[in-house]
Each structure stands twice: as structure tokens, then as C-alpha cells.
Amino acid sequence: MKIPADGKLLRIFIGEQDKWQGQPLYEAIIHLAKKEAMAGATAIKGFMGFGAKSHMHTAKLLRLSEDLPIVIEIVDSEEKINRFLPHLDEMVKEGLVTLEKVNVILYRANKE
């Protein structure tokens, strides 16, 4: 698979407890990205953050949050990202979705 040098970075900010059809939303998005043959997707768990409601989520020992921030990053061509966006519109009930230009330097897998 090849990604154009001028690709797009889709970034999705959600909460760890967000759900889609009974499963964690971040898992549902990653599985859908694979099904849609996206180049790759990564879910990153944050240790502190807040969103539109300004509610602080933190992993500090004295205040252990059960809803830590999750950021999902997907890099692919503009066309494939644009086809993926309507799914997110349906799935993400609370959160933030951003899109930015990226310069893809290297994308490859071991040939074995």
C-alpha cells in the first residue's frame, strides 16, 4: 500500500468510556479503519486532559479517573480519509475530530 507524500492526518479525541454498539468506541474506530483498508491507525491513552465540558480527567493516584482521554490517529490519502469521515459523524457523540495536512516521509513494512 502506498500513501501519497501529501497525506492527511485524522485525529479523533474521545473518552476511554465512550461506547459504540456495546464496545469501546476507540476499538470500534480502529476495527472499522482496518475494515476500510486504511493505511494504519493508532489509539493513544492520555494521562490527563479536558474537553468541551472542561471536566478534568487525570490518572493521578489520589484521583484515579475511569474515563481517561483517548486520541486515535489515522494517516492516509485525502480521498480515503474523506470516505471515513461520515462513519465518525455517526459514531462520535462527544469529542473532537481534526484533520490536517501531513508530509509522509516513510511508510513501509518488513518484506517477510
List the helices and strands and how they pair.
Elements: E1 6-15, E2 19-20, E3 23-24, H1 25-35, E4 41-45, E5 48-49, E6 57-58, E7 69-76, H2 78-91, E8 96-103
Antiparallel strand pairs: 1-7, 1-8, 2-3, 4-7, 5-6
Please work out how many helical segments DSSP would assign.
2
Q: Sketch the topology as an H/E string, one letter per element.
A: EEEHEEEEHE
End-to-end C-alpha gap: 15 Å
Compute the number of strand runs.
8
Keywords:
single chain, 112 residues, globular, two-stranded antiparallel ribbon, 8 strands, 4-stranded antiparallel beta sheet
Describe this structure in words.
- With 112 residues, this protein is of the alpha+beta class.
- 22% of the residues lie in helices and 35% in strands.
- The chain contains 2 helices and 8 strands, in the order E-E-E-H-E-E-E-E-H-E.
- It has helices at 25-35, 78-91, and strands spanning 6-15, 19-20, 23-24, 41-45, 48-49, 57-58, 69-76, 96-103.
- The strands form 3 sheets. A 4-stranded antiparallel sheet has the order 4-7-1-8, with helices on one face. Strands 2-3 form a two-stranded antiparallel ribbon. Strands 5-6 form a two-stranded antiparallel sheet.
- A hairpin with a 7-residue loop joins strand 5 (48-49) and strand 6 (57-58).
